[in-house]
Design brief:
The complex is a heterodimer of chains A (655) and B (322). Chain A is an alpha/beta fold and 655 residues long. Chain A folds into four domains: 6-168 and 379-425, 3-Layer(aba) Sandwich (Rossmann fold); 174-374, Arc Repressor Mutant, subunit A (Orthogonal Bundle), CATH 1.10.10.520; 442-571, Structural Genomics Hypothetical 15.5 Kd Protein In mrcA-pckA Intergenic Region, Chain A; 611-654, no CATH class. Chain A is built from 23 helices and 18 strands. In chain A, β1 (24-28), α3 (32-44) and β2 form a beta-alpha-beta unit. In chain A, α17 (453-464) packs across α18 (489-500). Chain B folds into two domains: 3-198 and 278-320, 3-Layer(aba) Sandwich (Rossmann fold); 200-272. Chain B is built from 13 helices and ten strands. Chain B has helices at residues 3-6, 14-19, 21-36, 47-58, 74-77, 92-103, 121-124, 137-149, 197-200, 212-227, 236-251, 257-272, 279-298, and strands at residues 39-43, 63-67, 108-111, 129-133, 154-160, 163-169, 172-179, 186-193, 307-311, 316-320. The chains are: A alpha/beta (655), B alpha/beta (322). The interface between A and B is large, with 82 and 84 residues. Chain B: Residues 20-312 form the THIF-type NAD/FAD binding fold domain.
Chain lengths: 655, 322
């Protein structure tokens, strides 16, 4: 035995091992799963490996991303991971790229160099991009994800299996807007509100594309109730007084006094509970520091600082301090984007949500808990990543060894479900209606007299349909070109002008057929544009109802509300956010960009465990993973005698 | 999370809280604090064990102690995370200690010398858990019995090519589990009783269908008891004996032919790759054993009771009480 691979050769056979050594593999992501996958590949004898990751190493990665050390914090993951795995086989030929897989550097030609792609990504949008490139290059893709104790591995291959976008992808948890704005009843409602407040106050231009809400003008509004016409207007004169005392006092008074007075006047909301009472900053600051909530004895001396629940007064002090700092920072940097890992931004959201919680008699939360909830953190652990990456390698070897027919999806449970900790399921056929892998037509309904080309491109094509650099053609005319690479300054300026046009005035009228392409993704879909104002009708109806009993405050909110309204619908796409259960109020996302948080600190299980599999283990299903009702059927290619398989079938029919 | 309550007895530092942040978010400060105070003894540092140790060291236990007297040779490299070509000629344990130190400097790592034949109670005392990598059953009986006597949880684990197993004897084991089905998620205390490995392998006729992997282990154990050595699968005569023993066992059960075929296939596979450690199986089983160690040390969540059998190609990991 002359090298470390004798066990591999014995177990998988010389022929398979030769195929392993000759293959070229692309690994996308060098994070939690990526580190383990790279290690496994090299230990299995893979030699030609490319790895792409845009992230740098953070201290909170060290609990699981075992290729990284404390002195690597701040360095690119891909490069450090490459150096680390070379110890297992110095002869391995690894190319590491610190970059974004969605850029042109990693185009179709680049993908075509490989035999196999292993995706170890942590966000939906990059997964969709890679999905399209692999379909287009005809490359088999091993897709994987983990969330806490749960994980899964599956295979995607054009024409043979369903693709990543064949079925609806999970949408982020949503809350009715009125709950967030007017009537919170749980800590999460106040946290979502506090993040929105952050965006309004400090977001600047970075706060959403064409959102032109100017936080500062709203800030001056001091109308509590009534209206000018009716002559019964009531104003909060104190707001102006506070404004003159400085920014932090002004903000505090506006959001915790003026706005609360407005809410308190809405009698309908407070039929069954105490109306909120506005806060007076001077009264709070005058209070002595003896506080009920936190100082419960000496034990707390040892407590971790983020675990500690701040007293109410501490929250107020933190809020004032952060508000001022963030304002300065926002002005310097021309707007801030909320980041859970930024100390001050997190403290601001934590204190703001706790103060609001206190006003509405909702329990306050520690900074630690607020970080989890506001940052949508799905904690990732090394053991789950190790299990999943071992299964990724298993499927990779089957594909490389010419045993594609033996591939299957595998789910990892938190605890055994009917004695099974791992559950294999057969691969599904492609969805013939898929707009991605079967290029089906889609229809987009929206108000073509109102929506601009820019909003259509950014919100619908880029965000909702994950088209990276859309190119639009109507008839024989190219009417819009997305990517920047091939355009000069003038052309980009020209495009800006087009973006400002209303769709209906720029060829995107009712009944038009537009072909949307992304050369990089080799993506092409034909979209029928249908004009409608039904979404506007919704708004009208709601307004009428609301005007019956609540008047003034709602009008103030009008503008804000419209932004959150559903304003388009896509038919035939597998990825439209579901608006089917129309609630009385409209919905808002937990995070502003309408996507699952793209945080790179953790891996998100995007394709959830089919419900039929988790029905017997309710505990596994109740993690904070975004779940959808993905009814992946469990039909098998396996031998009937296989106990695991037939049991799973039974479960399916039971459910 | 009952963070306010859980944090009361913590000894975690702010830096540890940063590094172990994601673990704390998953299992809570209380569990992390228990991990922080735990000492684990690992006996036999093969490839599978290197995966388990990596997983356990990363989550922040207090101390790991290693037992392994071999020198690093080419056939020991396999997929051992602690060994590279540069390790050849050095002791496995010194290489492991160095790698573990660098993996997480907050964890203490040490080694201890011990022959199985002369092990006494002192050998296992003071540890919160003993993990033994499988080489032969006589060693497993010795360590398991010592652990039983001293009320220390015991894990035995091994891989054979594409197959692997975990056996646990946690004695009388009490643990906590959050009942997430109820509002307010109540923490409930549960209790489990375990058998030793020799009790489990005592044999006889099993009433229900038994995982074929268990039959293989049963055959190996019986062979060892009779011959006082592990079978040499390169020798036809040993394989023949094992096969005929398997036929004996099968005769006592009413099994369908397809099941019998499956049992023979797994037996053949296992014997062929008895000493082969591959990264697929080691990564998966190392992860499963890793989370078991975390559960046991933190007494948080239901541990395996008492066997887990892995078939990495099929993607099955089944738990059985035997």
């Amino acid at each position: 035995m002359t090298d470390r691979f004798s066990a591999m050769k014995l177990t998988y056979g010389e022929e398979c091992f030769k195929a392993i050594q000759e293959s070229k593999v692309l690994v996308i992501g060098a994070g939690g799963i990526g580190c383990e996958v790279l290690k496994n590949l090299v230990l299995a004898g893979f030699i030609n490996i490319d790895v792409v990751d845009l992230d740098i190493i953070d201290i909170s990665n060290l609990n699981r991303q075992f290729l990284f050390r404390m002195n690597h914090v701040g360095q690119p993951k891909a490069l450090v991971a490459k150096d680390a795995v070379l110890q297992y086989n110095p002869l391995a030929n690894i190319n590491a790229y610190h970059g974004d897989v969605k850029t042109q550097q990693f185009d179709l030609e680049y993908f075509k160099k490989f035999n196999l792609v292993l995706s170890a990504l942590d966000n939906i949008s990059a997964r969709r991009h890679v999905n399209r490139l692999c379909l287009s290059a005809g490359l088999p893709l091993v897709e994987s994800g983990t969330a806490g104790y749960l994980g899964q591995v599956t295979i995607i291959k054009k024409g043979e299996t369903e693709c990543y976008e064949c079925h609806p992808l999970p949408v982020p948890k949503q809350f009715p807007v009125c709950t967030i704005r007017s009537n919170p009843s749980a800590p999460i409602h106040c946290i979502v509100w506090a993040k929105m407040l952050f965006g309004k106050l400090f977001g600047g231009q970075k706060n959403g594309g064409d959102d032109d809400t100017n936080g500062i003008t709203d800030m001056d509004n001091n109308i509590i109730s009534g209206s000018e016409e009716n002559g019964d207007i009531v104003r909060d004169e104190q707001l102006l007084v506070e404004k003159e005392k400085g920014y932090k006092r002004w903000v505090f008074h506006k959001v915790f006094n003026t706005d609360i007075q407005i809410l308190a006047k809405m009698a309908d909301l407070w039929k069954e509970k105490q109306p909120p009472s506005p806060l007076s900053l001077d009264n709070i600051l005058d209070q002595k520091e003896i506080d009920e909530t936190s100082k419960e004895g000496d034990q707390l001396i040892n407590q971790l600082k983020d675990q500690k629940l701040w007293s109410f007064k501490e929250n107020v002090e933190v809020f004032l301090d952060c508000a001022e700092k963030l304002k300065d920072q926002s002005e310097k940097e021309n707007g801030l984007v909320w980041d859970k890992d930024d100390e001050i931004s997190l403290s601001f959201v934590c204190s703001a949500s706790n103060i609001r919680s206190q006003i509405f008699n909702i329990p306050m939360k520690s900074r630690f808990d607020v970080k989890s909830m506001a940052g949508n953190i799905i904690p990732a652990i090394g053991t789950t990543n190790a299990i999943i990456s071992g299964l990724v390698l298993t499927e990779a070897i089957k594909i490389i060894g010419g045993r594609f027919n033996e591939c299957h999806s595998t789910y990892l449970m938190k605890e055994p479900s009917s004695r099974r900790l791992l559950i294999p399921t057969s691969l599904e056929e492609p969805n013939p209606k898929c707009f991605v892998c079967n290029r089906n037509f889609i229809t987009c309904k929206l108000n073509t007299d109102k929506v601009t080309v820019g909003k259509f491109v950014n919100e619908i094509l880029k965000k909702s349909l994950a088209v990276n650099e859309p190119i639009l053609t109507v008839g024989n005319d190219l009417i819009y070109e997305g990517g920047d690479q091939d355009l000069d300054k003038e052309e980009i300026a020209q495009r800006k002008k087009i973006e400002e046009k209303i769709m209906g005035q720029y060829r995107l009228v009712n009944g038009s057929q537009v072909i949307i392409e992304d050369y990089n993704q080799d993506f092409k879909v034909t979209m029928n544009i249908v004009h409608t104002n039904e979404f506007d009708e919704d708004i009208k109806k709601k307004k009428e109802e609301e005007n019956k009993d609540q008047n003034r405050a709602k009008q103030q909110d009008e503008k804000k509300k419209e932004e959150d309204e559903k304003w388009f619908e896509i038919i035939g796409s597998t990825t439209t956010p579901s608006n089917e259960n129309k609630k009385e109020c409209d919905a808002t996302n937990t995070n502003e960009n309408g996507m699952v948080d793209d945080d790179d600190d953790f891996e998100i299980l995007e394709t959830p465990v089919p419900e039929s599999l988790v029905c017997k283990t309710s505990s596994t299903a109740s993690t904070n993973t975004t779940t959808t009702t993905n009814t992946t059927s469990l039909k098998r290619k396996y031998d009937e005698e296989d106990s695991e398989i037939s049991d799973a079938k039974k479960q399916k029919s039971d459910s | 999370m009952d963070t306010a309550v859980a944090a009361a007895s913590t000894k975690l530092t702010e830096k540890e809280a940063q590094i172990y942040d994601r673990g704390i978010r998953l299992w809570g400060v209380d569990a992390q604090t228990k991990l922080r105070q735990s000492k684990v003894l690992f006996i036999g540092i093969n490839s599978l064990m290197s995966e388990i140790i990596k997983n356990v060291v990363l989550v922040g236990v207090d101390k790991v102690e290693l037992v392994e007297d071999a020198l690093a040779t080419y056939d020991k490299l396999a997929c051992n995370l602690f060994l590279s070509e540069d390790s050849i000629g050095k002791t496995v344990v010194s290489e492991a200690i160095q790698k573990i130190n660098s993996l997480n400097p907050l964890v203490t790592v040490d080694s201890t010398d011990k022959e199985f034949e002369t092990m006494t109670d002192d050998f296992v005392k003071g540890y919160d858990l003993v993990v033994l990598s499988h080489t032969n059953f006589s060693n497993a009986y010795i360590v398991n019995n010592l652990c039983k006597k001293n009320n220390i949880p015991f894990i035995l684990t091994g891989t054979f090519g594409l197959h692997g197993f975990i056996f646990e004897d946690l004695n009388e084991f009490t643990y906590q589990k959050r009942d997430e089905s109820k509002e307010g998620s109540l923490i409930e205390t549960h209790k489990l009783s375990y058998k030793t490995i020799s009790e489990s392998l005592k044999g006889g006729v099993w009433n229900k269908r038994v995982d074929p992997h268990f039959l293989v282990l049963f055959l190996l154990a019986k062979f060892e008891e009779k011959h006082n050595r592990v079978p040499d699968v390169l020798q036809n005569i040993d394989t023949e004996e094992l096969t005929s023993n398997l036929n004996e066992v099968i005769k006592q059960h009413t099994l369908k032919q397809s099941e019998i075929d499956k049992i023979f296939k797994i037996t053949k596979d296992t014997l062929r790759t008895l000493n082969a450690e591959v990264p697929t199986t080691c990564s998966v089983l190392g992860g499963i054993a890793g989370i078991e160690v975390i559960r046991i040390l933190s007494r948080n969540g239901t541990p395996i009771n008492n066997w887990l059998f892995l078939d990495v190609e099929k993607g099955t990991g089944n738990v059985e009480i035997l």
